[in-house]
Specification:
Strand content: 25-35%
CATH class: Alpha Beta
CATH architecture: 4-Layer Sandwich
Shape: globular
Helix content: 10-25%
Oligomer: single chain
Distance between the termini: 32 Å
CATH topology: Purple Acid Phosphatase, chain A, domain 2
Strand order of the largest sheet: 4-5-8-9-11-10
Number of strands: 13
Radius of gyration: 16 Å
Number of helices: 6
Bound molecules: fe (ii) ion
Number of domains: 1
Largest sheet: 6 strands, mixed
């Protein structure tokens, strides 16, 4: 069997303008640095940043994220999270060669990059533009991965479930119709996996601070920063798991 395409999903870095700034009591820069050797060891072919790259939407945070990650993989993409400034980050990541607001074809797979952010609201929503991207991906007739920041279902943690994707039913129906194999999201700062309607829904935990699962309020997880990996074979076979800095 031919070599698979290795994709890293990197989420919720929450970097701040000040490189010494703290997020939930820890340095998000140091967390990302701790995880970097484990991510590099995967020798990824592509990486997708799934939002909340910055806690504060600052240029400084985006530029440090790019500096830290640009050498990790030859193909790169990014989608925004609710803490990001979507238009501002678009310009900075566009200049650095990150794919955005499109469907990319990597390793014989379609990878749809959906923007689920709505202004001044931590919960998510998908506009007709995003549903059109999903349709565009389906017309490629390739095994497909869909990324968005917000979870389309509750993960069992009320502190974040109140800010999930609004009105997720049409989305779940749309991804269940075609060749979508998996939907990857961030936002929840914990590992989550659920199979529904023939599609696997998977979170990437945060590279910053995670919470223990199934908690009413954010409860720091002492097991450290994490990311998710995917291996994608051209015949549609795939596998996924979580990388931890330990
Ligand atoms: Fe978020």
């Amino acid at each position: 069997m031919t070599k698979p395409f290795t994709l890293l999903q990197i989420s919720d870095c929450h970097l701040l303008a000040d490189p010494k700034g703290r997020y939930r009591g820890q340095s998000p820069d140091e967390c990302l640095q701790r995880l970097s050797p484990a991510m590099a060891a995967f020798k990824p072919d592509g990486l997708v940043l799934t939002g909340d790259v910055a806690e504060d939407g600052s240029s400084e945070a985006y530029e440090r994220a790019i500096d830290a990650l640009i050498g990790l993989a030859p193909k790169r993409a990014v989608i925004p999270g609710n803490h990001d400034d979507p238009d501002h980050m678009f310009d900075i990541f566009d200049a650095a060669g990150f794919a955005q607001r499109q469907v990319v074809t990597w390793g014989g797979w379609a990878v749809a990059l959906l923007d689920s952010v709505q202004p001044n609201d931590p919960a998510g929503a998908l506009s007709p533009t995003e549903y059109q991207l999903l349709e565009d991906a389906q017309t490629l007739a390739l095994p497909t991965l869909v990324f968005l920041h917000h979870p389309p279902m509750a993960v069992g943690s009320p502190w974040i479930d109140r800010y999930a994707l609004n009105a997720p039913e049409p989305f779940i129906e749309a991804v269940g119709l075609g060749q979508v194999q998996a939907v990857g999201f961030g936002h929840v700062h914990q590992v989550f996996s659920e199979h529904r309607g023939g599609v696997q829904y998977l979170s990437a935990p945060a590279t910053s601070v995670n919470s223990q699962p199934d908690r009413d309020s954010f409860t720091p997880d002492p097991t450290g920063p994490k990311a998710r990996w995917y291996r994608l074979w051209r015949n549609g076979r795939w596998a996924s798991g979580v990388i931890s800095a330990g």
